Structure formats: structure tokens, C-alpha cells
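Hi all, posting the design record for the shared folder.

TITLE: backbone redesign
STEP: 1 of 1
STRUCTURE INPUT:
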């Protein structure tokens, strides 16, 4: 049975390019815009409160932060810090919530004298374009702005924080990888990692950095030293080296193996063909970077990748607007909605699996948010898969054995 059409969680008055969810608070942050062109399309970062209302997950606008003439194309989140890729620069923003953001409500600031949750006005109806926040519950402060790309068509294409938020890594159209101390934003390392654009960055164990470039390479770096180059097709001799390029790379946890990591990469065809060949997903050992499994994932070109907190699911968006969820262990597709958006899906993100995130899931096994150039943020729910407990399976097996013996005894008297 095909999944229902995904619900439209939020509609912005500008194209959306990125979305992140706070790991501890019911907060989604999405951003985009029309850029510097004088088209009247705004540029901004929107803060959305997520809550369960009537058994359904909903989003309401808390605050709209104006980014002037700069559209946010990439974004990384570390607690209350946002690293936003805007044109050739990385802008560091700190947001503050005036009153703890609680599940399903906004709690008043301590000492305010208010009793109980503060009531907010409802969000503007979708499509009206009123982006002003209905309250002053969020304030945003600009901390730093550093240039992170120096190519003629300068654009920061990827940004990541490390696990403890002490390091920021950026990559862009000039092929250079740049490492920055945080919060000082002092540049500690800069080197050319790829001939051409860096499409994606993943930070792994022992401060290793994985970069995916448009030069058909996916590389593992220790500082500025190349550890290894990945070869996803080494066990697929029928696929030439330059038929595919790497589009995305992400590290994910391994279920029931604390501390272990897997690397996942997406390979897409380098050239468009009348009969498009499939894209591929590859799972790698996170320590020795050997390929463990490769599977095709459909002929629609993949545009973005996300991994759930537990490492159980992979979320994919495509250039044709479709959204899919795969099982990380087998890379098999579990969920798919064709053309969930009317145009390219620019980012996907799973609802966190923290305590607050599980409350938002409301019994579903996973929830994925997708954003696209069509200005919409959509919700994809993966219902819990029903499974029988082990004791019940054993009981059923024992009953089946007893029933078989009895039938044989009836059919063949003296069998026993």
C-alpha cells in the first residue's frame, strides 16, 4: 500500500534551501530566499515551533530573521548557534529563546509573573506571505561573518560542526576545505581538496573529514593529508570510474553497537541520458572505509541525504521532487512518495530521537521533514512496523510442531 501524500507542514514566502531540527527542543529552523536579485522575494531564516495538535504534528512560525540580500543555502546547527552559508560567506548566528521552549507550548520567562504557558497567536495561513513573527519569543544575534569561498562564482556549498562544537568545516565552489576554530572563527587549516566544487562534507572519528566533490572523488582527510580515496564501484567492474560522481556523504550510528559509525554515500550519474541509469547508495565501514554494501536507489537523481539519530533510516530527496526513506542496514527502500514537491528537494532532516522528539513522533517510527524550491516544508511519517515479540514467536513455533505431530498421528496411526 502506497503512503499517503505528505502533509504540508509549513509554507514560506520564499524558496527553501535548508532545514535543521534542534536535538533537544521542538524547534525546526528553515531558511532560503530569492538572493540578491531585485525580485521582491525576501531572504530569511524562519524558526518554527513543532507540536502535536489533535494527534497531528504541526508547525507554527515563532520568528522570522531577515538576512537582507543574502539567501541561506546551507546551514549547520550546534545548540543555539547557526552557521549559515550565504553566498561566499559563513555567517554565525546565535538565537535566544525568551522562555524555555516546551513541548506544545511556550513557557514564560522566569520571574515574568505569568502563570502557565503563554498563548501565541496562530500562524499565518499558508501562502499569505506574512513572515513576521507573532511574538518576540526568539531573538537572533550576528556573531561573525567570514569569507569561505573565493571562486569566480563564489558559493559556500557545505558546512559542518564537529561533535563538541569546537570546530567548523566549510567547503565550496573553489574546491578548498577550510577548518575554523569555534567560537573564535580563527582559520586553522586551508587546502585544496578537490578540482572543482565540494558537494558535501562529513566529519568522522579521530577528526577525519570526508569530502565529496564534483571531480568524481570522495576523499578521507586527516588534517590536510589524504588518508584514502573511496572507490564505491571497485566490486562493480561494469561501471566506469567517471560515469558517476559523489553527491552526498554522511556518517551514521550503528544500531546496538555504541560508538561504531558507518559512512553512507550517494552516487549519481555524471551525464543525463534519455534512459537515465540508476543512482546508487553505498554503505562503508567507518574505520577502514571499505565498502560494505551498494544498492541502486532509483533512476531519479538524488539531491540530498539525511540519517536518523539511531542510524536506522536514510532519508533521500530528488531533483524531481520525490522523497524516500531507506533502511540503513540493507539499503532497501521502505517509503517513497513520487513528486512530493513540485521541484527539486533541497534538504531533508529527521525529527530527533531524543525524549522530546519521541513525543513529537507520537508512536510513529520516524518522521522526515523535506524542503524544496517550491517554498514548502512537508512531513513524511513512517508508521511503526508491527512485529511479534520473540516469546510469542517461540510459542507459535512450539504450537505448530505439536499440531504437526498430532496430524501425523491421526493420518498414520501408530506413527509414534
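Okay, here is what came back for every position:
SEQUENCE:
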Amino acid at each position: 500500500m502506497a503512503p499517503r501524500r505528505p502533509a504540508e507542514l509549513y509554507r514560506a514566502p520564499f524558496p527553501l534551501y535548508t532545514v535543521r531540527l534542534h536535538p533537544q527542543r521542538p524547534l525546526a529552523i528553515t531558511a532560503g530566499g530569492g538572493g540578491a536579485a531585485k525580485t521582491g522575494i525576501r531572504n530569511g531564516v524562519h524558526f518554527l515551533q513543532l507540536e502535536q495538535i489533535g494527534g497531528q504534528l504541526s508547525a507554527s512560525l515563532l520568528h522570522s530573521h531577515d538576512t537582507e540580500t543574502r539567501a541561506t543555502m546551507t546551514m549547520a546547527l550546534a545548540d543555539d548557534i547557526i552557521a549559515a552559508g550565504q553566498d561566499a560567506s559563513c555567517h554565525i548566528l546565535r538565537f535566544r529563546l525568551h522562555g524555555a521552549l516546551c513541548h506544545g507550548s511556550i513557557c514564560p520567562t522566569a520571574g515574568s509573573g505569568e502563570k502557565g504557558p503563554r498563548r501565541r497567536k496562530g500562524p499565518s495561513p499558508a501562502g499569505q506571505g506574512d513572515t513576521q513573527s507573532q511574538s518576540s519569543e526568539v531573538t537572533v544575534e550576528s556573531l561573525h561573518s567570514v569569507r569561505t569561498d573565493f571562486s569566480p562564482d563564489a558559493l559556500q556549498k557545505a558546512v559542518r560542526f564537529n561533535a563538541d562544537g569546537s570546530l567548523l568545516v566549510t567547503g565550496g565552489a573553489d574546491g578548498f576545505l577550510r577548518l575554523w576554530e569555534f567560537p573564535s572563527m580563527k582559520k586553522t587549516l586551508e587546502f585544496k581538496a578537490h578540482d572543482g566544487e565540494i558537494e558535501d562534507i562529513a566529519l568522522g572519528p579521530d577528526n577525519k573529514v570526508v569530502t565529496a566533490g564534483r571531480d568524481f572523488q570522495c576523499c578521507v582527510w586527516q588534517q590536510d593529508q589524504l588518508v584514502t580515496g573511496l572507490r564505491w564501484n571497485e566490486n562493480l567492474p561494469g561501471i566506469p570510474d567517471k560515469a558517476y560522481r559523489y553527491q552526498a556523504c554522511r556518517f551514521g550510528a550503528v544500531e546496538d553497537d555504541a560508538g561504531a559509525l558507518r559512512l553512507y554515500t550517494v552516487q549519481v550519474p555524471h551525464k543525463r541520458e534519455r534512459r537515465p541509469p540508476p543512482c546508487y547508495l553505498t554503505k562503508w565501514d567507518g574505520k577502514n572505509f571499505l565498502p560494505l554494501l551498494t544498492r541502486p536507489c532509483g533512476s531519479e537523481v538524488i539531491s540530498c541525504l539525511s540519517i536518523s539519530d539511531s542510524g536506522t533510516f536514510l532519508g533521500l530527496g530528488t531533483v524531481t521532487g520525490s522523497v524516500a526513506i531507506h533502511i540503513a542496514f540493507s539499503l532497501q527502500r521502505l517509503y517513497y512518495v513520487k513528486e512530493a514537491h513540485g521541484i527539486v528537494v533541497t534538504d531533508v532532516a529527521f525529527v530527533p530521537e531524543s525524549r522530546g522528539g519521541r513525543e513529537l513522533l507520537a508512536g510513529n517510527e520516524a518522521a522526515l521533514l523535506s524542503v524544496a524550491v517550491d517554498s514548502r516544508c512537508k512531513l513524511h511519517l513512517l508508521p511503526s512496523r508491527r512485529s511479534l515479540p520473540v516469546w510469542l514467536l517461540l510459542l507459535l513455533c512450539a504450537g505448530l510442531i505439536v499440531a504437526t505431530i498430532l496430524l501425523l498421528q491421526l493420518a498414520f496411526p501408530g506413527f509414534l
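COMMENT: DSSP finds two helices and 30 strands in the chain.
Let me know if anyone wants the other runs.
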